[in-house]
Design goal:
The complex is a heterodimer. By secondary structure, chain A is an alpha/beta fold. Chain A contains eleven helices and twelve strands. In chain B, the strands form two sheets. Chain B has a nine-stranded mixed sheet with strand order 3-2-4-7-1-8-11-10-9. Classes of the chains: A alpha/beta, B alpha/beta. Chain A: This is Acetyl-CoA acetyltransferase.
């Protein structure tokens, strides 16, 4: 395959409160910064990820495009998914060999919504959605199944949350969340409040470049050595919720073995544990040094941020081989794994 | 550059106002099964799935590809959901083609659909976010002023749109999947229908349809094993421009011109009217045929309506446009672009049945979306590029 690398990553200072900004206003500075940092104002391809339901109106990506600047006209596309899949689409396009750079971004504003009500509408509309089950309740079912199977206790989940929040406090872009409180109540048992990712507004952007263009734009490019994504059946009753088969396949195809740092898009504490097992990550692998989604969860940018954070560890020389992961759908239904290396 | 890619299977559903006999999943299965059968393949042979539809508000399901994963045969495979407004059917096909052209996969199933009867598309298009231009009342409310501007600018007589409305519906009579079949349709009939958004009359506009379209795209090796004649992808392009700024030409947007120039260059085409044997072009309101004839370089500025009036774009004209009946005859919005792409492929691989254009060897598939700001096009041919 053609050499393609993440050469730049920018993100907003994510917010857990409505700051009175439109989605596009959250996105605009991020795009401005990445253009300034790379010195690029035109890209071979542009691709974004967003979700109309967060805005409550069709075509969220249209106004974002106005923000990004598309004049003279640009070569551009959009996935109604996390921006990580936009990155995948851009990576595929770069593989053809006709272009050398791509701008990828994702954005979402969660604080003005009832996210649970919205994502209830993501389920099968004929059978599952009418039951009114929300994404946190489904995650709790998965957590219960996983704990029963693995022997993991609530304290183990709490440890994941505590580590994520502590790391998030050291990350200027994540939320400033306290250690899990002693008497933290259940959100939906067995998940306590700290086991559920916070509502967050935010945006992120990545520039991909191929070959010499990557070397020109970045001192230490994060070369994508493998990227793959897989989906599973939708119904929670149709799959084994205690493991993530799609992550396992994607991890194998992308070559997850041997990474030093993994940024996992776990929106619930137990998901991190399931993902670690699926990817075969040992105790020697540092997971979510950024704090992960439990410390800041801008929807539709969350997975892209994981790839960006994992790439940043290569950019700054702290790691040679890292992994970024993204997820979509209830109970980790769909997963993407991107493995990056400082050496090519 | 890139590897060769061919369409080796096409599947469409019946297009109609309400498909009460199938769920969304069932609708997609119908199209997918037909495409797989056409390609002589089973679900197991498919490496990845690329699916597209227009806004989620159209059916009221958030990111519906997630619940449709099983029906799409995607379990254990990569699945991508593309959304680029009305152009999405075209861009979905291009994303799928890129998966083959890049060498990442050998056989990709791509589908696009809309089941508009499960919601209300005009309502969904009317909701607008703060500080952005409202589409007023559905798509017609947005496009009518641009059509009026075209008429004023080009000096076209008022009946040109009606000619297109008649021509495309006459073509639809030959297409077994078409939604609107109006035997004996005439200019008088179109002119007698109510004015919806001046100058757009009822029969100058497209229907709201339920329907899906699917294609199997394949690498050169995989195409060799296909039972039918492949349609080779000779060029693909996508272009976008902002919806609103004062210097924008809403009548003939630059992104459309650039996108067309790009596919012609890739395919080595200097004169599209002469070198393309037919075209499937996204014409949801009849007046968009003359407008796009100019935008796509089939004629000079202000000449599009003359070409339409001369009969050049008719089924037996020298440059047939929308031999399938086009968007004016069937409009499952998210699928409409892919239908254009698929119909172009059908023409160059002798799959078009009664609406086959004799000797078609090279065809254009075109889609546009948003405020006429998103474009996706491909050129397919019977010869490998």
């Amino acid at each position: 395959m053609r050499e393609v690398a993440v050469v730049a990553f920018t993100q907003s200072e994510h917010s857990g409160e409505d700051q009175g900004l439109l989605e596009t206003e959250i996105l605009a500075p991020v795009i401005g910064e990445i253009k300034e940092r790379t010195g690029l104002t035109r890209f071979g391809f542009t691709c974004s990820g967003s979700c109309d339901y967060l805005q409550g109106a069709p075509f969220a990506f249209v106004s974002a495009l106005d923000t990004v600047g598309a004049w003279p006209p640009i070569s551009e596309s959009h996935v109604e998914m996390d921006g990580a899949w936009a990155l995948y689409e851009a990576w595929v396009k770069l593989q053809i060999g006709e272009i050398d750079t791509a701008l990828v971004y994702g954005f979402g504003k969660s604080t003005q919504n009832d996210i649970r009500a919205i994502f209830t509408q993501q389920h099968d509309p004929y059978y599952l959605a009418p039951l009114g089950v929300d994404n946190v309740s489904l995650a709790a079912l998965q957590a219960r199944a996983y704990m029963d199977e693995s022997g993991v206790k609530e304290d183990d989940l709490r440890a994941v949350a505590a580590r994520s929040r502590a790391a998030g406090r050291g990350n200027p872009f994540a939320l400033d969340l306290p250690d899990p409180a002693d008497g933290a109540g259940y959100d939906v048992a067995p998940l306590r409040e700290h086991d559920v990712a916070p509502l967050t507004d935010g945006a992120a952007a990545i520039v991909l470049a191929a070959g010499d263009k990557a070397r020109e734009l970045c001192e230490r490019p994060a070369w994508i050595t493998g990227i793959d994504h897989r989906v599973e059946p939708h119904s929670p009753g149709a799959r084994d919720l205690t493991r993530s088969e799609s992550t396992r396949i994607a991890g194998e195809k992308a070559g997850a073995a041997g990474v030093e740092i993994a940024e996992l898009y776990a929106q619930f504490s137990h998901e991190e544990l399931i993902l670690r097992e699926a990817l075969g990550l040992g105790d020697d692998v540092t997971v979510n040094p950024s704090g992960g989604a439990l410390a800041a969860n801008p929807l539709m940018a969350g997975g892209l941020i994981r790839i960006g954070e994992a790439a940043s560890r290569i950019h700054d020389g702290t790691a040679a081989r890292t992994l970024g992961h993204a997820s979509s759908g209830p109970c980790l239904q769909q997963n993407l794994v991107c493995v990056m290396s400082g050496e090519k | 550059m890139g590897n060769s890619c061919a369409v080796i299977g096409v599947g469409q559903t019946q297009y109609k106002t309400k498909r009460l006999d199938v769920s969304m999943a069932g609708l997609l299965r119908e199209a997918a099964r037909r495409a797989l059968d056409d390609a002589g393949l089973t679900w197991r042979d498919i490496d990845a799935i690329v699916v597209g539809k227009a806004p989620d508000l159209f059916e009221g399901v958030v990111m519906p590809e997630v619940f449709l994963a099983d029906a799409l045969g995607a379990a254990g495979k990569p699945l991508i959901r593309v959304h680029t407004a009305g152009s999405v059917g075209g861009s979905t096909a291009i994303v799928a083609a890129n998966l083959v052209r890049s060498g990442v996969h050998d056989r990709v199933l791509t589908l696009a659909w809309e089941k508009q009867s499960e919601s209300n598309a005009t309502w969904a298009l009317t909701v607008n976010s703060p500080f952005t231009t409202s589409l007023v009342v559905g798509a017609g409310g947005y496009f009518a002023p641009h059509i009026r501007a075209y008429i004023r600018k080009s000096g076209a007589p008022e009946h040109i749109g009606h000619l297109v409305a008649v021509k495309d519906r006459e073509n639809a009579l030959r297409n077994p999947y078409a939604h609107l079949k109006i035997p004996g349709i005439s200019r008088e009939m179109v002119e007698s229908t109510p004015m919806l958004w001046e100058p757009i009359r009822y029969l100058d506009t497209c229907p709201s349809s339920d329907g899906a379209c699917a294609m199997v795209l394949a690498s050169e090796d995989a195409a060799k094993k296909a039972p039918g004649k492949p349609a080779w992808v000779q060029a693909t392009s996508m272009r976008s421009e902002p919806m609103t700024f004062s210097g924008r030409d809403n009548v003939s947007p630059q992104a459309g011109k650039d996108c067309a120039a790009d596919v012609y260059k890739q395919a080595g085409i200097a004169d599209p009217r002469r070198e393309l044997d037919c075209a499937e072009v996204y014409v949801p309101f009849s007046w968009y045929e003359p407008m796009w004839l100019e935008n796509l370089g089939f004629c000079g500025e202000g000449e599009g309506w003359k070409l339409t009036e001369s009969g050049a774009t008719a089924f037996d004209g020298d440059t047939p446009w929308n031999p399938s009946g086009g968007v004016l005859s069937s409009n499952p919005i998210g699928a409409s672009g892919m239908i254009r792409f698929a119909e172009a492929a059908m023409q160059v691989s002798d799959r078009a049945g009664e609406h086959q254009v004799d000797g078609a060897r090279r065809a254009l598939g075109h889609a546009y979306g948003g405020g006429a700001q998103f474009y996706a096009m491909w050129i397919v041919g019977s010869e490998k590029p």
